[in-house]
Specification:
By secondary structure, the protein is mainly alpha-helical. It is built from 5 helices and 2 strands, in the order ααββααα. α3 (51-115) packs antiparallel against α4 (123-159). The protein is rod-shaped.
Amino acid sequence: VINKFNLVEFYEVENNEKAQEALVEDTNFEIDEEGTIRINTDIKTGWFHSEEDEELCKALSKDITNDFVVKLDEINKRLKSEEAKQYRIFIEDRYNQNIKDLEKSEEKLKVFREKNRQIETSPALLLEEQRLNRDVDVQSGLFITLQNENELAKIEEVETSIIFNILDPPEAPIERSYPKRKLSVIFSIIL
């Protein structure tokens, strides 16, 4: 922002750090309870200035605010995209692990049934078969859940481009905010 709008020259300061300090004085960021971010940039004119200087400050206030909004949107999209990607990778890894676990459970059940064809007379073998069936059922249920989550994560990763809505686009100030001419006149009369 400092370089883009040549604020070192505008503020008539010696370096970017001083320009940043001046810009911080002229800018206000607020976040309300709902998470709405309000950005207000109010570039001030000097005490005695032309109409052209006043219009320049109004336009600069609008342009800087708009630049903040654009940059905030870019950062927000990048962070949300990275978050969605990490979630997708986690679900994908878990999904792939579950496929292996399900295959192992099914294989154990298959081997058990091949070795134990006459299990009706053995309570221990019946319990073992129930345990193996239950394991297959759990892995199958998990498989379905992870399959759905995997697809949703892929969709979410693509949809992260719509993250933030601009409720009110930046506008140039209508009225001057500084200097307060009425106060200046009153103080000059008093003095």
